[in-house]
Amino acid sequence: MIFINSSSKDSFKIFQSFSPIFVPFGIGYLMATLDRNNIKSYYVDEVFEKDAFEKILEICKNINKPYIFGFNVLTVSYKNALILSVKLKNKFPESIVVFGGIHSTMMPEESLLNDTVDIVVRGEAENIIVDLFNCLKRRNYPTQLNGISYKSGGKIIHNSENFNQVRLSELPEFPYKYFENNNYNLGYVMTARGCPYNCIFCSKISRSSNVRFMEKTQVLDNLEILYEKYNIKHVGFLDDDFLCNQNRVYDLCELLRSSKLYNKMTFSFAARADNCNAEVLKMMYSSGFRSVFLGFETASEDIMKSLKKGEKLTSVIEAIKVVKNANLSVSTNFIFGLPGENREVRRKAFKYAKDLKLDLVKYNNATPFPGTELYNIAVAENRLNVVGKYENFLATAVLTENPFKKIRIPFVPKGNTENQIRYDILFGTFIFYFNFRRLKYIFTKQDLSNSWYYFGKNAKELSKNIFKILILFVILFIKFSEMLILYPFLSKNRNR
């Protein structure tokens, strides 16, 4: 089986050269599961391969038919997955193309309406991947496998949901050996799955409300591998809410302090504001944790309520103060272009970023990904703007777009214009970052960036990237100059 990590290669546009590339944990655990069952698998990443198709052709020379191609598909990479699947089907008509990942899980029928897509795996696949492989190798339909959608007799068939959740404690050791390519930033771990909340901007259907965790000894084993074998000294935890089980956090911190990693590694994590408390954060700091990402989302209490996050704006503000008092750096994001929002709300966000002395902040454009309630709202209001095959579905589109090739914002709520949202995002970014203290922080404290950017781990790497950095600054100068010229002339809010 050949796994393919679909990518447009430039999803971060002008920031592509400075965006850390995570190891694809989903594909990695699928490969490890097949390994444990003595099934050989291969992996191709479109992010790095100059010609993924040619790479796949080379691999196919050494394996038996039927070829099985398993695509990991995000919304923004859907177009690229389809293009490559067409090439593969034209070359190998008897091959089997399987789409998985969050976009395929949300939109299985859309995927299967393409002639080149045979099967969709909905949700997690570690507990069915071996059976699916054996079934397809025998050229049988996966009629008995839950969580599978496929085509038969001209019809699309959806098998029952796969309610047999993956137990993270039973997963094999992550196969870092497959991802030792220097292009990957290995300094990340994912130690939990699931989220109990119902935010309208998140693809909840793809996530179990039952949060599952790795055993703390598994976590420590992964950290030791990263430190001892790959010399990784800072690790970011990619769990949705690292603090949702604080007993686990206490246990893990105790394990870290008693391990040989104590005082050798530092860590960053993401959390909900209402799970932050001074005692836990103080303990985490003493165990090596140095930065936290909190989702601010909006500067309006009414909009916060409408997001169904189950959190109050006052809780976020208080949490930031608690985090700062614990000596952790704090980064956060605001989502601009949410339903009910106006320019006054966005200006309040600028003020919060300044008054709360945030270390890093991102202003993202609201993106109604398939499977979210926000997507349904955009469709119902006839405000869903899809370019091609979701090519504009980028939460960072406004900041990262080329100033000479702007990306259409996928959702503009009533009472706003696209340019108002675009230039408010740029204005907020400009007034926050363009001062000496902030620029110094960006270049000297990259470990605390919570995976937002990476310019190089030392002066030598920075010097190698200096030309790219200068080009980036020239492009940003053009973007911000345009914004500053046009910003005073933006009309006040008006209904459309």
What does this structure look like?
There is one protein chain. The chain is of the alpha/beta class. The chain folds into two domains: 2-158, Rossmann fold, CATH 3.40.50.280; 185-489, tm_1862 like domain (pyruvate-formate lyase- activating enzyme). The protein is built from 18 helices and 15 strands. The strands form three sheets. It has a seven-stranded mixed β-sheet, with helices on both faces. Strand 6 (148-152) and strand 7 (155-158) form a beta hairpin. The model has no long low-confidence stretch (mean pLDDT 91).
**Oligomerization state:** single chain
Q: What is the alpha-carbon Rg in Å?
A: 23 Å
Beta content comes to: 5-15%
Query: What is the fourth-level CATH superfamily of the largest domain?
Result: tm_1862 like domain
Any idea what the CATH architecture of the largest domain is?
Alpha-Beta Horseshoe
Integer count of domains = 2
Query: How many distinct helices?
Result: 18
| Structural class label | alpha/beta
Strand order of the largest sheet: 2-1-3-4-5-6-7
Q: Characterize the largest beta sheet: strand count, sense, and whether it forms a barrel.
A: 7 strands, mixed
Which residues sit in consecutive blocks of at least 5 with pLDDT less than 50?
none
Helicity range of the residues? 25-40%
The rough form would be described as globular
What is the fold-level CATH name, i.e. the topology of the largest domain?
pyruvate-formate lyase- activating enzyme
N- and C-termini, Cα separation: 51 Å
For this structure, what is the CATH class of the largest domain? Answer: Alpha Beta
| Number of E strands | 15
